[in-house]
Fold this sequence. Notes:
The structure holds 2 protein chains of 2 kinds.
Chain A: H1 11-34, H2 50-65, H3 75-82, E1 92-94, E2 101-104, E3 126-133, E4 137-144, E5 151-160, E6 163-171, E7 185-191, E8 199-210, H4 219-222, E9 241-250, E10 256-257, E11 261-264, E12 269-279, E13 282-291, H5 293-299, H6 307-310, E14 320-325, E15 336-338, E16 352-355, E17 361-370, E18 378-385, E19 388-398
Antiparallel strand pairs in A: 1-3, 2-9, 3-4, 4-7, 5-6, 5-8, 6-7, 8-9, 10-12, 11-12, 12-13, 13-17, 14-18, 15-17, 16-17, 18-19
Chain B: H1 3-12, H2 14-25, H3 28-44, H4 55-75, H5 96-101, H6 106-117, H7 122-129, H8 133-156
Helix pairs in contact in B: 2-3, 2-4, 2-6, 3-4, 4-7, 6-8
Amino acid sequence: MNNKDYLKTPEHFKLLVKSKVNEQLNTSKITDEKTPATIPPRKKKSGFHFGKTAAAAAAIAIIATTSVFAAKHFRLGDYFDNNAATYNESYIETIDNRDVSVKDGFPEQMKQFKQNSAKVFDEPLFTLTETYYDGNYLYIYAKATENGQEYDAITSRILINGTQYIGDFGRLLGQTEIEGFSQDEYVGTFELDGLETDNFTVEMPLSIYLASEETSVTETSALTENDSADSNTAPALSRQGQQTVSFNITASDRVLSYADQQITVNSDITVDVSDLKRTELGVRLNLTWHLDASAAEKYLYDFEYTDEENDNLSGYSKPDYQVTDDKGTNYGNDQIHINQIQSTPDDIDPVLVIRKADGSADCISKIFISDVPKNAQQLTLQLKHNGQTIDEMSVEISLE
Amino acid sequence: MTKEELGDLIVSSTDSLYRISKSILKNEADCEDAVSEAIVKSFAKIDTLQHTSYAKTWLVRILINECYRIYRQKLFAPSNEFAFKENLFDEADYSELYHAMMQLDDKYRIPVELYYIEGYKIHEITDILNRSEGTIKSQLSRGRQQLRKYLESEAAE
């Protein structure tokens, strides 16, 4: 494919861009002359920025009221703020680097990926200072050491008790300028679905490249990603070596895990609840509806969105959940997060529908409900399609 | 990077900015709004750009954020319910490939656009879209499959 004749830019659009650029250059010249420190004028923001405004107001309030005691500043907190993520700062753990072990090479379970390398990497390339675990997602923050400045250590998986969990860890290359992070800072995010303990040891198998080289392919993911783009379009890489970094997470005191639940809704529908965990932040769970053929035909007609529906062009609303608890709370859309880490509404399929040959179907959602009161003992989740609740697809989940 | 250099970069990237905004918003007026706002914001935030080599990626990321902001506003504004359909298929100037690209799901179209049309590398797309490398690869692969199916069905007709 090439872009030569793909889409012709209209002349009026080119003129618009030139005029906008000139307007900004002229504005900044005038502004620079008058008040050098003034930021160029910006357009009025929409209501969608309420969260950031509220956060800024809260930050000012904290600064104003705690001028004597300087609170510890967490970089992961900055990262979450930048991504408008829901988080609880008290869950951020400061890691003592004496508790972080570093060794050359990959763990034994990944010996098939081992590669002989002339260099030995048994010294830390970064200082791991903060972790955040909320019962499902693990975030890691680190900063390159002086010796590690020339390297980029990356991975797309971690090992916990021999099980692999997928995610990302690497330098914040290229995405840092807006957010106030520098290029020698690392952030990792991993989804720990199905993890049965909340005290565990993490092993990170890292591939090490020179920081100045392309980092577009991690071979640990490339080897297992059959569904990947053409490898011949990716630039050549020269891996410098491998390293495994291990550290502990202790979170069982703040994460309450429940046993899996199987609930019969009616003769046609059953529900599996797994990974049910409760923290001060809220309740997380994986929900799978099993519908027999007649229920699937009745309730899932026109359920998966077509391309047009997916574009949300005609008022179609994606499947959704209505959530209430036994204390009468009716949770708002901003408290119900489906299949996502953060409240970003793009590209999210709220309900994954798997249709089987016999006509039956499974509907799978990963749900996080925030602000669940401590005394709530039961949640009721009801599936909504096109904005309407489906009476027969309602399930009560015990939190006792 | 100076403001003049940023201005030059924006003007030289006009075609790219148009194509990217058009792949998300489709409507001409919305694209103009998104690009205008992205230009204003990029000038306002130029001091936060530490490395000139990332300027284009940075600019595209600002533009995509603006496109999604406008997309969301339209989505929740009843009076603009059908605005996204305007100009979608009634422009004779659009290439067959563009029509084919518009058949792709949103989540595949943007990575495909950035990779195959704009020539960004996978790690740059992960930065721009803030998605994982595995996700981008998978979306590229599925986007290609969808595109291939659509073009084959068009050829058969």
